[in-house]
Structures are given as structure tokens and as C-alpha cells.
């Protein structure tokens, strides 16, 4: 079994290298797919004028920009991400009343009791030690400060990813899946685990509610297939596989997607948790 430090190091290596590069390459497709979830979590965060906010896993800064617009000129947003390529893209926007840092929120030396709001859109599922990460984050929040994030539920509840992967598996070597306590895209799918982590980290007032939306993967199957495997588990699975195996896997994926093709795009269901919690007014 890998240690928490080893898990954290693996995530850092991936996101600073291939993961960050592939995310940038697939940016438009990813943003189109997750747009509705981003809107839902930004609405739940309800950032207010003059607030100080922290955007965990800020990526290229799209959500940071939205938060900065909400808090206004007298507010401030700090975006933190472990991926140097993504933070470089975020900084290139030249956003006002923002700052960006390359680092792990588990160990980053945040100023104590400095944030009214901590926000994340799909950025909290990759901590090697999530209890330590959220404990560090909580210390950085003001008494009464609020935590709002969105994360994926379980793979079976997310056909947008499960359908292509299931179709491709017969043509690929066995894929190593993260253990229940290891970081990964679906590591917060178990509601009880999320409750346990945030409780141990000292948060109160926990609220976890499902958000179910359709993800538009592209205008039609050929356009989806053009980009399939450019990011995520399929990209890693295709990395060391012979071209003829990839071709067969893609044929199977295209066939599996046919029932989901509509006149308005190829749409499959996605399922998330919208999580809200607070720091007790009496402590930080």
C-alpha cells in the first residue's frame, strides 16, 4: 500500500506534467462538458463584494475570474493549483484582484483566518492526505467562513465516462483502479467518506446534495471520437497500447455512444455532490 506522501507525489508529478498538458489540450471540450456543474457550484458559493476567497485546484483560472468579478475591486481571490502549466495559463489572463500560486493546499502556508470563502470545482479529489489538506484549509478560513465545492459521485452514476470506458476495456490491458482511500477523479464519490474527512478536519454545518446534469460531449459522434482519449483514464490507457488496439477500442466506443446521439449533441448523464460546510464561529 502506498503512503500518503507517495500518493501526493504521484499526483504532483502527473499534474505538473502529462496531466496539465493534456488538460490544456482538451480545455474547450472539458469546459463545454462541465459548464453546468460549474454554474451550480458558483451559484452555491454566492461570493459577495469585498470577500476574500480561495479557489482550490483553480486550473486555468476560469472559476477564479468568476469569483473575482463577484467579490469586486475591494475583494481578492487566491487561486492555488499543483500544476505549473495550468497556473501559467491562469496568470496569463492578467486578472485584477487575484493572485495565483503553484502548490499543494495540504501544505501551503496560508495566512491564518484570512478567507471568507473556500471554493473548488473538481479540485479537491486528488489530495494524498485529504484530512490534512482540509485541516490546513480550515485554519486559513475566518470563523464562520464557508467551504463550497463540487465533486464527482461514483463511476456507475457517471455514464459520460463509464460508457466509453466500458466499451473500450475488452481491447485494453487491465487498468489499475485507485483504492477507496486513494486520490482520483471519483475518490469523493462515497458520501460517507466525504462526511468523515470534513468532520475529522473540523468543519461543521455539513450539507451534501446531489447534482445531476447531462454532459454534452460534442455535436455528433465523429466530433466526439476526434477527441476521445485526449485526457483522463482513456488517455492513460491508450498511452502504451498498439495502434490497432486503440482503433478497435474507438470503434467500440463509437458504437456504444449511438444511443446518446441527439439533434443537440451527444449527451450522457453526469452525477456530482455539491458540498457545503462552515468553520465554527468560535474557532478557526
CATH level 1 name of the domain at 4-155 and 181-216 and 271-278: Alpha Beta
Q: How do the SSEs run, as a string of H and E? A: HHHEHEHEEHEHHEHHHEE
Overall strand count: 8
Task: Tell me what portion of residues adopts beta-strand conformation.
Answer: 15-25%
Q: Which regions contain 5 or more consecutive residues with pLDDT less than 50?
A: none
Global Rg: 19 Å
Distance between the termini: 33 Å
* Main pleated-sheet profile: 8 strands, mixed
CATH architecture of the domain at 4-155 and 181-216 and 271-278: 3-Layer(aba) Sandwich
Could you state the CATH homologous superfamily of the domain at 4-155 and 181-216 and 271-278?
A: Vaccinia Virus protein VP39
Please, how many helices? 11
Classify the secondary structure makeup into a structural class.
alpha/beta
What is the 3D shape? globular
Proportion of helical residues: 40-55%
CATH topology descriptor of the domain at 4-155 and 181-216 and 271-278: Rossmann fold
What's the pLDDT, averaged over the residues?
Answer: 92
Features:
Rossmann fold, about 280 residues
Amino acid at each position: 500500500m502506498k503512503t500518503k506522501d507517495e500518493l501526493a507525489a504521484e499526483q504532483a508529478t502527473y499534474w505538473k506534467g502529462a496531466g496539465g498538458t493534456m488538460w490544456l489540450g482538451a480545455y474547450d471540450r472539458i469546459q463545454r462538458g462541465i459548464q453546468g456543474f460549474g454554474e451550480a457550484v458558483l451559484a452555491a458559493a454566492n461570493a459577495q463584494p469585498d470577500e476574500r476567497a480561495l479557489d482550490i485546484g483553480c486550473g486555468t483560472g476560469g472559476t477564479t475570474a468568476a469569483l473575482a468579478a463577484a467579490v469586486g475591486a475591494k475583494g481578492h481571490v487566491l487561486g492555488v493549483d499543483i500544476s505549473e502549466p495550468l497556473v501559467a495559463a491562469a496568470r496569463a489572463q492578467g486578472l485584477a484582484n487575484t493572485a495565483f500560486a503553484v502548490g499543494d493546499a495540504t501544505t501551503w502556508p496560508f495566512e491564518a483566518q484570512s478567507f471568507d470563502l473556500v471554493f473548488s470545482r473538481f479540485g479537491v479529489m486528488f489530495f494524498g492526505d485529504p484530512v490534512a489538506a482540509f485541516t490546513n484549509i480550515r485554519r486559513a478560513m475566518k470563523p464562520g467562513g464557508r467551504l463550497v465545492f463540487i465533486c464527482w459521485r461514483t463511476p456507475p452514476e457517471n455514464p459520460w465516462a463509464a460508457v466509453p470506458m466500458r466499451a473500450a476495456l475488452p481491447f485494453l490491458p487491465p487498468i489499475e483502479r485507485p483504492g477507496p482511500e486513494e486520490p482520483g477523479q471519483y475518490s469523493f464519490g462515497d458520501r460517507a467518506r466525504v462526511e468523515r474527512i470534513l468532520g475529522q478536519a473540523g468543519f461543521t454545518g455539513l450539507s451534501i446534495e446531489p447534482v445531476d446534469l447531462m454532459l454534452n460531449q460534442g455535436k455528433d459522434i465523429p466530433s466526439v471520437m476526434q477527441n476521445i482519449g485526449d485526457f483522463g483514464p482513456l488517455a492513460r490507457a491508450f498511452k502504451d497500447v498498439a495502434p490497432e488496439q486503440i482503433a478497435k477500442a474507438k470503434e467500440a466506443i463509437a458504437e456504444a455512444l449511438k444511443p446518446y446521439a441527439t439533434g443537440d449533441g451527444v449527451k450522457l448523464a453526469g452525477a456530482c455532490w455539491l458540498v457545503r460546510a462552515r468553520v465554527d464561529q468560535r474557532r478557526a
